[in-house]
Design brief:
Blueprint: E1 2-6, H1 10-21, H2 23-30, E2 35-40, E3 54-55, H3 58-63, E4 67-72, H4 79-89, E5 93-96, H5 99-116, E6 120-121, H6 134-139, E7 145-151, H7 154-166, H8 170-179, H9 188-191, H10 194-208, E8 210-211, E9 218-219, H11 227-235, E10 238-248, E11 254-264, E12 276-283, E13 287-294, H12 298-314, E14 323-324, E15 337-338, E16 340-345, H13 349-356, E17 360-362, E18 368-370, E19 374-375, H14 376-388, E20 392-399
Parallel strand pairs: 1-2, 1-4, 2-3, 4-5, 5-6, 8-14, 9-11, 11-20
Antiparallel strand pairs: 7-10, 7-12, 10-11, 12-13, 15-19, 16-18, 16-20, 17-18
């Protein structure tokens, strides 16, 4: 079986290395040789051990009938979309680490793959080296899933871990993440929750059968979290984590969101630190299943890409599938219920109880408290009423 890699960056080089180093193991498992035939990249790599495999024209790969699987690790939804579509139409299976492409065009690409009798697989698009998607497609597919939630971005988790362990403010923790190469020079996609939004869209699609566009997912980042919030979380035995969550309630409502949450430290997600990721799946018979590991990096992500190649080679593929989201999916986020941690100032204490209900104070220098369960719309109305009384909300974070 012949493989072509599109892109020779961090992930692409890792895929080439793994296909080469583990060639005998892969061949033994598949009962056939799995050979790297081409690498597509516009750059020159004269000192690479793979230098003889490089091509600059995708049509060379597209027209070579001996190429069975294309590994797309370019990223983005531009040229990667064009090449993926052309490869599938040419009768080649495609494996990918590209969450933006899957979240944006996955519905179309899966349909093309099905029509052509090939596969479009993307285990590496969520959770790096964690096998987060294949259990939803295969091992847990016989369960009714009520929730899939996760810490899906190593950059934000590293920043929050530093804020907890060192008491550093957000700006310092971000600067350190950039210095260590965990955060990009422009970290917007990470710290504003955009990256997690794409990943939870994929997890929700596999869990509940509909691909929800990013524009329909309530998305918040971590830029508003203060070191005082971290200290308050510690006092009540919680960690703060940026979560992607997809929740299917008994009545049928489906809520999908990205936001910081206070998580009790008794729960596994609360203890995931640094650049690690974790995914929690809740099924009606299996209960809670926790998947944990490195969420990014050359070798972990390459491992997930090669896992898809291995499944195709051995003929053990469970084909992922979903449809486009119907009208009314997801449910209106304004009706989602939760408790909140809140810091307020500028109003009489009696106004807090009148407006927010029976609150639970948190001791400290700030006027911090936990609200009762309330919907998003009730919260918004309460904040407006509080402002009318001269009050101001300094900080608020949902409770998991």
């Amino acid at each position: 079986m012949n493989i072509a890699i599109l892109g020779f960056g961090t992930v692409g080089s890792g895929v080439a290395e793994m296909l080469t180093q583990n060639k005998d193991l892969l061949a033994k498992r598949a009962g056939k040789d799995i050979t790297l035939k081409y690498i597509l990249d516009i750059r020159e790599f004269p000192n690479s051990p793979f230098r003889d495999l490089f091509v600059k024209d995708f049509s060379v790969i597209e027209q070579d009938e001996t190429v069975d699987v294309v590994a797309e690790v370019i990223g983005g939804a531009g040229i990667a979309y064009e090449f993926t579509k052309r490869a599938l139409l040419a009768g080649k299976s495609v494996v990918s680490s590209n969450k933006e492409l899957v979240a944006t065009h996955g519905t179309e690409l899966l349909q093309i793959a099905k029509e052509k009798g090939v596969y479009y697989l993307f285990e590496a698009a969520v959770g790096g080296g964690i096998p987060a998607l294949s259990p939803l497609v295969d091992d847990l597919a016989h369960n009714k899933i009520s929730e899939v939630s996760g810490i899906l971005n190593g950059t934000t988790n590293y920043i929050l871990t530093q804020m907890f362990s060192l008491g550093a403010p957000f700006s310092e923790a971000l600067a350190e993440a950039q210095a260590k190469g965990y955060a990009e020079k422009d970290p917007t996609a990470d710290i504003e929750g955009i990256d997690v939004c794409r990943k939870i869209a994929i997890l929700a699609a596999l869990s509940f059968g509909e691909m929800i566009p990013a524009s329909a997912i309530h998305t918040e980042g971590i830029t508003a979290i203060r070191k005082e919030d971290v200290q308050a979380a510690e006092k009540i035995g919680c960690s703060i984590k940026l979560l992607g969550r997809a929740i299917k309630e008994a009545e049928g409502d489906l809520y999908v969101m990205v936001a910081p949450f206070l998580i009790p430290k008794s729960l596994p997600l609360a203890e995931i630190a640094g650049v690690y990721n974790g995914v929690l799946v809740r099924g009606n018979f299996v209960g809670d299943v926790m998947l944990y590991g490195r969420g990014a990096g050359s070798h972990p992500t390459a491992s997930a890409v090669v896992a898809d190649i291995d499944h195709i080679a051995r003929g053990t593929v469970a084909r992922p599938a979903w449809s486009a989201a119907k009208d009314g999916t997801p449910s209106d986020f304004s009706s989602f219920f939760c408790r909140r941690y809140v810091v307020a100032e500028g109003a009489e204490q009696s106004a807090i109880g009148i407006i927010f209900g029976e609150t639970e104070p948190i001791s400290g220098e700030e006027n911090a408290f936990l609200t009762p369960m309330m919907s998003e719309s009730t919260w918004t109305d309460s904040v407006e009423r509080f402002a009318a009384c001269g009050g101001k909300i300094i900080s608020h974070i949902r409770l998991y």
